[in-house]
Request: fold
Amino acid sequence: VQIITTIKEMQQRISLLKQEGKSIGFVPTMGFLHEGHLTLIKHAREKSDIVVMSIFVNPLQFGPNEDFDQYPRDIERDERLAGSAGVDVLFYPNVDEMYKNEMTFHVTVKDKVDVLCGSKRPGHFDGVATVLIKLFNIVTPSYAFFGMKDAQQVAVVTSLVEQFNFPIEIIRIPTVREEDGLAKSSRNVYLTEDERKEAVAIYRSLQLAKELISNGERNPAMIQERMSDYIHSNTKAEIDYVEIYTFPDLKPLSSLTGLVLIAVAVRFTKVRLIDNMTIEI
Ligand code: PAF
Reply:
């Protein structure tokens, strides 16, 4: 795997690849790679001639009291994993390189952000949109791969690409899970041993929702209540939200129909975890 740390060199590399007629698949990440990322790479590998992965912990998308400094990092391990998973070019800029000059523009995401993580993390999706505009302009991929674990991010990025006319196809990849069902996340390392055991309740609450729906339940409030009860009874975690919306528009609905997103966020002592499920009704 070739590591590139400057924007200029990245752009030169891309321009050469384009001259050779290569299609580019892009996997944007914040590093500390796990199987979820490796699955994104696998799909990118299958669909494109060249796979570019970025690793950049983007300060703009972290709130003042969030885990920017504590966000886990291990570039050597990432480099090895990325290389053996089939990444051709690893774009690894530092914060100065990405935000060399103070930003005098502010991207504000206006739709789809007053719910779920958006409402709990003000400015988060503005930061995600800003860095993705930059990365999309630098890498100019044909395809960009996103995990459905961050379903709201997928919804926002879908609008971003449509509204700013990026000629990029956004490919949604299902969440990868541990054996017991816990969604893979770079942040799982911050669970205590007991919390790790309890954390399976997040996935099970989603399974419970699925079961209620297949038994005919269509009232979102009822499902949310049963899920919250389940999490309360099986963990010491604090529930941040249990919410149900249409996907990808993220609108509330009084009776479940169509493609719906059921999403959960909970706080353990040192870490906040999210998970979700989309289900066609
Ligand atoms: O999902 C992530 O890891 C980040 O939000 C992304 C898309 C790399 C933007 O910083």
Notes: Strands lie at 2-4, 24-29, 50-55, 89-91, 143-147, 169-173, 238-246, 259-267, 272-280. The first strand starts at residue 2 and ends at 4. The chain has a mean pLDDT of 97.
